Amino acid sequence: PVASSRAATSDYSISQGTDVHEALDQSGHTFKPGWKEIFRMNQNELESEIRKVSRDSTLDPRRKAYLIQNLMTSRWIAAQQKLPQARTGETSNNEDLLGCFPSFRDPENQVFGCEHYKRNCKLRAACCGKLFACRFCHDKVSDHSMDRKAISEMMCMHCLKIQAVGPICTTPSCNELSMAKYYCSVCKFFDDERTVYHCPFCNLCRVGNGLGVDFFHCMTCNCCLGMKLVDHKCREKGLETNCPICCDFLFTSSATVRALPCGHFMHSACFQAYTCTHYICPICSKSMGDMAVYFGMLDALLASEELPEDYRDLCQDILCNDCEKKGTSRFHWLYHKCGSCGSYNTKVIKVDSNSNCSTSS
């Protein structure tokens, strides 16, 4: 009787939890992405979604807490869902489970690879033992990240033989087939389309012709920079941080990174989007380019404006973000020109109602 009572209580709790789940799912807003997509997210994507939900002011507090809790526990939930399949043997084909089949970058022309890279092999992840065309394909469907430097085995997609990772297939029938035009034994990286080099200082493979050709390694910034940036502002380990816009780690990012005049970095795509509405660095607030034309337009605008008499002689103490000097400026609600460098990238420190600015610049 006790056991049956406990079982009944347990069944009731599960049923009640399901009802709450359905009620929340059917109330007001439909959460996107759905639960199936959540279970396939990697760590970075989960963190991004959690931040997005946390910032959403339109969500009810109870629903927001519910969504964040489910996002944070989705890895455990996904793992629990996989356990019954392993016990019942639903995945009977071990080869399919390991990914022991070819994948194509161009299925019509039978070009091996994936959406990220063209290559003739799959890599066997040291973490889970499964075969993937690249680390991005692995991370996309796994709840952990692949350490490609720990890879010791690969599968040739021509003969489907698993073998030691290397630049060619060792199977006699493949006749020393090359896995890709470029192979790095340190990074275990294959690329058959782009020009790639390995930087021994970054200990990473990067796109380019090589050090001393179109890139150089700055020992202070500890990163590879284009030859045009030989004269740049150094910041110690400047690239070993997250992009201030998308928060992805810059040092190992596969996307193009842009160096700002102030010495900070961000993705080129993020820079293009950010500069549509901003011109100052999101980290240090310095101007990110030559703003002479824009500042000239502001000069003309202020010259054509006439302030009310009560504000004409008011003075404001300002700090210039570009030259980092303090000064004074005539009162204005928006624009305050630095008397030292002529920049409008300034911030007001104090408004002095007793000071007369009739002779100030």
From TrEMBL:
Keywords of the record: Ligase, Metal-binding, Zinc, Zinc-finger
The CTCHY-type domain, residue ranges: 179-242
Keyword Metal-binding applies: yes
Pfam families: zf-CHY (PF05495), zf-RING_2 (PF13639), zinc_ribbon_6 (PF14599)
One Gene Ontology term of the molecular function aspect: zinc ion binding
Transmembrane among keywords: no
PROSITE patterns the UniProt entry points to: ZF_CHY, ZF_CTCHY, ZF_RING_2
CDD domains reported for this sequence: RING-H2_Pirh2-like
Record-annotated CHY-type domain positions: 107-176
GO BP terms: intracellular iron ion homeostasis; protein ubiquitination; ubiquitin-dependent protein catabolic process
Domain RING-type, first and last residues per copy: 243-285
Annotated GO CC locations: nucleus
Name of the protein described by the UniProt record: Uncharacterized protein
Source organism: Davidia involucrata (Dove tree)
